[in-house]
Specification:
Largest sheet: 7 strands, antiparallel
GO molecular function: protein phosphatase activator activity
GO cellular component, one term: cytoplasm
Family: Belongs to the SMEK family.
Strand order of the largest sheet: 4-3-2-1-7-6-5
Radius of gyration: 38 Å
Number of strands: 10
Oligomer: single chain
Protein name: Protein phosphatase 4 regulatory subunit 3B
Organism: Rhinopithecus roxellana
Strand content: 5-15%
Length: 849
C-alpha cells in the first residue's frame, strides 16, 4: 500500500453546504486514457475500490488551504476536497496540478482559464485583459467600488481577477479604514455602499481574503460594515452583541493563546454566516462554500488542540465529578463537553475514534453516571446529548463499561439503570427526553451492532447482564400499572421520584384469568371496563407505550432471553390489561406486542397463549369497539387474518373452539369464517387418519394416565430450558404473584403425586358413544404456576390473591369429540354446561363454544 504521505480523506459538499466524508484512501496522479488527460485517483484503503477519479482540467480553479487541503469545483454545484494526512503529500499533488495547468506551485489558487470564444469576448473589455484596476480607496469612490464588486459576481474569471487585485494591494484594510471614517462622520450613504462592498467580497468565496477579513484586527469592522444593510430602517447592533452580550466562558482557563484566538474567530465567523448574512438565493448558494469550509476546518483544529492538551481535559473531568463543585460551575462544565462532542463530529473517522477513546480513558462514562442523576434539568439534558454521541460512536464501549461496573456496584446505580430511570421520570408532558433515551437503549440492546469474537460473544454476555440487572427496572411501571397489589405500587412510588396515577381499581384480578370453559364473571364478553386496571393519565400512557415499543423490539430481536422473561412474569397477560385503556394508542401498543409474539409462529408461545386464554382481552376489545371502523378494529382483524393465512393450527383450534360463537356474527370480513373452515378441514384430516387406525387401537385413543398428563405438562413448562440449555432470568422472589409462574409448578406436581389414588378415580369415563369427559385441573392459575386443587362444578369467580393456594374455585370440564386428536374440546350442546350457564349472574355471550 502507498505510504502515509498519499493518505487522504475525500469530502464532497452537500446541498446543506456541509462537507460529507466519502472515505479514506490513497491518492495518485496518473494519465487516464478514458478521460484523455492527467487525473487524480483515490482508491479506498479498505478494499481498493475507486473513491475518486477526477481529470485535472486546465480551466478548473484549485485552492490549497491550511497546508493539507486541496479544494476545487467539478461542476456548478459540486465541490470536492482532499484532506491529506501529511503536508508533504499535499505539496506533492499540488505540484502535479500546477504542472498540468502551467502554474507556479507557490501560488495557493490556480486561476480559471477560459475557452477561445470567451477569451475573444472578454478581450474586448479592457478591464479583463489584465488584473482589474481598482479605483482609489476614497470616500467619493465608494459607489464606483460597490458597482464594480457587484458586477463581477456573475463571471467566475472576473471574480478571480478581482480577488487577486484585492489581495495584492491590501485593499480590504483600506476599505475598513474608510468604514471607521464614515461611521465617525455618520455618512449613511457611504456606510450603505460599504455594506454592498464587504458583502460582495465575501461572495468572492476566496480563502485568502477570508484570512484577512477574519483576523483579530479586521473582523469587528467587517461585522460593523454588515450592520448597515440599506434594506433596514435602522442598523443592527451585531458588534454590541458580540462584545457585550455574548460572553466567552472558560470552564478551565485556556493558556494557549492560539487556541483562544481560534475559538473566538470560529464563533464570530459562524455568527456572520448564520445571523448576519441573508439567506443566499439559488444563484448565490455556491458563493459561500469556502466560508463553510473555513468554519469546518477551524472546528477540526480546535478539537485537535484541546484533545492534545490532556492536562486541560483532566482538570475538567476532576471538577465535573468533584462533589464540592457548585451547580452553576457543573452546568458550564457539562455544556462545554456537549459543545466539545458536537465539534468532534467534524473530525475524520480515525481522529474521531482517537477523540472518544481519549474521553473514555479520562472517565467520561462514570462522570455521566453522576450528572445524569442530578436534579438540574439543564445538566441532565446536556448529559443525555453527550451520552447519545458516545452511544452513536461505539455502543460496544458503553456496554463493556456497564458490564464491568456491574461487578462492583448495586443494580440501582448502574449507568443503564440511571438512563432507564431518567426515561421513566421525564417530566416533559410530551416525553421528549424519554423518547431520545428510549432510542439510545434500543441501540444498546440491538444484537445487530454487537460483536462476536473467538474468545467471547458480546451478544450473550450483554443480554444476560441486561435481563438480570436492568429489565426489572424497565418493566416496573408496566407491571405496577397493571397490578392491584398495593405493596407493589407503594414500592414503585417510593423507588422513583415521579408521581404516577393509578386509576380504575379492579374488582377482579386479570393476572389469573380462567380458561374459557369455566363460568367466571371475568370470562364474559363485553364485561365492564371499570373492573380492570388501566392507566388513564396521558403521560403515564405515553411512557407505557414507549416501554412496550422497546419490549416489542426485544421480542423481534432477542430469543430465549425475552421468552424466559415473558413466561416468568406472565408478561403478555399484564400487557393485555392495557387493551382496556381509554387511550387507543396504548391499546394498539399492547396489541402490537402480542402480534409480534404470534408473528414468530413459535409453538411454545402459542401454548402459553392458549393455556392462559390470552385471546380473551383482544376479543373483548374487538366486541366493545362495536361497528366502528377504526385502526383498533383493523389491527385486531389483521391479527386473526395472519393466523388464518399462516394456518397456525393450535391457535386456530383454540379460537374456533372457545370464541367462535361470539365472533360468528362478524360478516363484513371473511376472516372468522375462514378460521372455522380451516379448523373443520384440519378436523376432517385428523378423522381420516384416525379411521385408518384399527378399531382395537382406536378405542383407547384418549386413555392417558396421570403420569402421561404429568409428563406433558412438565415438558411444556420446561421446553424453554431444553431449547436454550439454561434459564437466563435469575429466580425471583416468590412473594410477588407474577413471579410464581415457573417455580411453584414443582409443588403443584408434588401435590398431584400425593393424590395418585384420587387421580385414578378421576380417569375419563365414557359419557356418550365415542366420547369421553375429562375432569381437568389445569386452570389458568395452574398454567401460571400456582398450586391448585380442582373442585368440580364450582361457579364462583377465581381467587386472585396471587399466592400459592391449596384450592382454586374453578374447574374446567372439557370433552373430546369422536375421532379428534385434540382430546380437550367442548361439546357445544353439553347439557351440564347449559345448566351452569343458567346459574351465571349475567346474561352475556360467553367466551366459549
Amino acid at each position: 500500500m502507498s505510504d502515509t504521505r498519499r493518505r487522504v480523506k475525500v469530502y464532497t459538499l452537500n446541498e446543506d453546504r456541509q462537507w460529507d466524508d466519502r472515505g479514506t484512501g490513497h491518492v495518485s496522479s496518473t494519465y487516464v486514457e478514458e478521460l484523455k488527460g492527467m487525473s487524480l485517483l483515490v482508491r479506498a484503503e479498505s478494499d481498493g475500490s475507486l473513491l475518486l477519479e477526477s481529470k485535472i482540467n486546465p480551466n478548473t480553479a484549485y485552492q490549497k488551504q491550511q497546508d493539507t487541503l486541496i479544494v476545487w469545483s467539478e461542476a456548478e454545484n459540486y465541490d470536492l476536497a482532499l484532506s491529506f494526512q501529511e503536508k508533504a503529500g499535499c505539496d506533492e499533488i499540488w505540484e502535479k496540478i500546477c504542472q498540468v495547468q502551467g502554474k507556479d506551485p507557490s501560488v495557493e489558487v490556480t486561476q480559471d482559464l477560459i475557452d477561445e470564444s470567451e477569451e475573444e469576448r472578454f478581450e474586448e473589455m479592457p478591464e479583463t485583459s489584465h488584473l482589474i484596476d481598482l479605483p482609489t480607496c476614497e470616500l467619493n469612490k465608494l459607489e464606483e467600488i460597490a458597482d464594480l464588486v457587484t458586477s463581477v459576481l456573475s463571471s467566475p474569471i472576473r471574480r478571480e481577477k478581482l480577488a487577486l487585485a484585492l489581495e495584492n494591494e491590501g485593499y480590504i484594510k483600506k476599505l475598513l479604514q474608510l468604514f471607521q471614517a464614515c461611521e465617525n462622520l455618520e455618512n449613511t450613504e457611504g456606510l450603505h455602499h460599504l455594506y454592498e462592498i464587504i458583502r460582495g467580497i465575501l461572495f468572492l468565496n476566496k480563502a485568502t481574503l477570508f484570512e484577512v477579513m477574519f483576523s483579530d484586527e479586521c473582523i469587528m469592522d467587517v461585522v460593523g460594515c454588515l450592520e448597515y444593510d440599506p434594506a433596514l430602517a435602522q442598523p443592527k447592533r451585531h458588534r454590541e452583541f458580540l462584545t457585550k452580550t455574548a460572553k466567552f466562558k472558560e470552564v478551565i482557563p485556556i493558556t494557549d493563546s492560539e487556541l483562544r484566538q481560534k475559538i473566538h474567530q470560529t464563533y464570530r465567523v459562524q455568527y456572520i454566516q448564520d445571523i448576519i448574512l441573508p439567506t443566499p438565493s439559488v444563484f448565490e448558494e455556491n458563493f459561500l462554500s469556502t466560508l463553510t469550509s473555513f468554519i469546518f476546518f477551524n472546528k477540526v483544529e480546535i478539537v485537535s488542540m484541546l484533545q492534545e492538551d490532556e492536562k486541560f481535559l483532566s482538570e475538567v473531568f476532576a471538577q465535573l465529578t468533584d462533589e464540592a463543585t457548585d451547580d452553576d460551575k457543573r452546568r458550564e462544565l457539562v455544556n462545554f463537553f456537549k459543545e466539545f462532542c458536537a465539534f468532534s463530529q467534524t473530525l475524520q473517522p480515525q481522529n474521531r475514534d482517537a477523540f472518544f477513546k481519549t474521553l473514555a480513558k479520562l472517565g467520561i462514562l462514570p462522570a455521566l453516571e453522576i450528572v445524569m442523576g442530578m436534579d438540574d434539568l439543564q445538566v441532565r439534558s446536556a448529559a443525555t446529548d453527550i451520552f447519545s454521541y458516545l452511544v452513536e460512536f461505539s455502543p460496544s464501549m458503553v456496554r463493556e463499561f456497564v458490564m464491568q461496573e456491574a461487578q462492583q456496584s448495586d443494580d440501582d446505580i448502574l449507568l443503564i439503570n440511571v438512563v432507564i430511570e431518567q426515561m421513566i421520570c421525564d417530566t416533559d408532558p410530551e416525553l421528549g427526553g424519554a423518547v431520545q433515551l428510549m432510542g439510545l437503549l434500543r441501540t444498546l440492546i440491538d444484537p445487530e451492532n454487537m460483536l462476536a469474537t473467538t474468545n467471547k460473544t458480546e451478544k450473550s454476555e450483554f443480554l444476560n447482564f441486561f435481563y438480570n440487572h436492568c429489565m426489572h427496572v424497565l418493566t416496573a411501571p408496566l407491571l405496577t400499572n397493571t397490578s392491584e397489589d398495593k405493596c407493589e405500587k407503594d414500592f414503585f412510588l417510593k423507588h422513583y421520584r415521579y408521581s404516577w396515577s393509578f386509576v380504575c381499581t379492579p374488582s377482579h384480578s386479570h393476572s389469573h384469568s380462567t380458561p374459557s370453559s369455566s363460568i367466571s364473571q371475568d370470562n364474559i364478553v363485553g364485561s365492564n371496563k371499570n373492573n380492570t386496571i388501566c392507566p388513564d393519565n396521558y403521560q403515564t400512557a405515553q411512557l407505557l407505550a414507549l416501554i412496550l415499543e422497546l419490549l416489542t423490539f426485544c421480542v423481534e430481536h432477542h430469543t430465549y432471553h425475552i421468552k424466559n422473561y415473558i413466561m416468568n412474569k406472565d408478561l403478555l397477560r399484564r400487557v393485555l390489561v392495557l387493551m382496556n385503556s381509554k387511550h387507543t394508542f396504548l391499546a394498539l401498543c399492547a396489541l402490537r406486542f402480542m402480534r409480534r409474539i404470534i408473528g414468530l409462529k413459535d409453538e411454545f408461545y402459542n401454548r402459553y397463549i392458549t393455556k392462559g386464554n390470552l385471546f380473551e382481552p383482544v376479543i373483548n376489545a374487538l366486541l366493545d369497539n362495536g361497528t366502528r371502523y377504526n385502526l383498533l378494529n383493523s389491527a385486531v382483524i389483521e391479527l386473526f387474518e395472519f393466523i388464518r393465512v399462516e394456518d397456525i393450527k393450535s391457535l386456530t383450534a383454540h379460537i374456533v373452539e372457545n370464541f367462535y360463537k361470539a365472533l360468528e356474527s362478524i360478516e363484513y370480513v371473511q376472516t372468522f369464517k375462514g378460521l372455522k373452515t380451516k379448523y373443520e378441514q384440519e378436523k376432517d384430516r385428523q378423522n381420516q387418519k384416525l379411521n385408518s387406525v384399527p378399531s382395537i387401537l382406536r378405542s383407547n385413543r384418549f386413555r392417558r394416565d396421570a403420569k402421561a398428563l404429568e409428563e406433558d405438562e412438565e415438558m411444556w413448562f420446561n421446553e424453554d430450558e431444553e431449547e436454550e440449555g439454561k434459564v437466563i432470568v435469575a429466580p425471583v422472589e416468590k412473594s410477588k404473584p407474577e413471579d410464581d409462574f415457573p417455580d411453584n409448578y414443582e409443588k403443584f406436581m408434588e401435590t398431584k403425586k400425593a393424590k395418585e389414588s384420587e387421580d385414578k378415580e378421576n380417569l375419563p369415563k365414557r359419557t356418550s358413544p365415542g366420547g369421553f369427559k375429562f375432569t381437568f385441573s389445569h386452570s389458568a392459575s395452574a398454567a401460571n404456576g400456582t398450586n391448585s386443587k380442582s373442585v368440580v362444578a364450582q361457579t364462583t369467580p377465581a381467587t386472585s390473591n396471587g399466592s400459592s393456594s391449596k384450592t382454586t374455585n374453578l374447574a374446567t370440564s372439557v370433552t373430546a369429540t369422536k375421532g379428534s386428536l385434540v382430546g380437550l374440546v367442548d361439546y357445544p350442546d353439553d347439557e351440564e354446561e347449559d345448566e351452569e350457564e343458567e346459574t351465571s349472574p349475567r346474561k352475556r355471550p360467553r367466551l366459549g363454544s
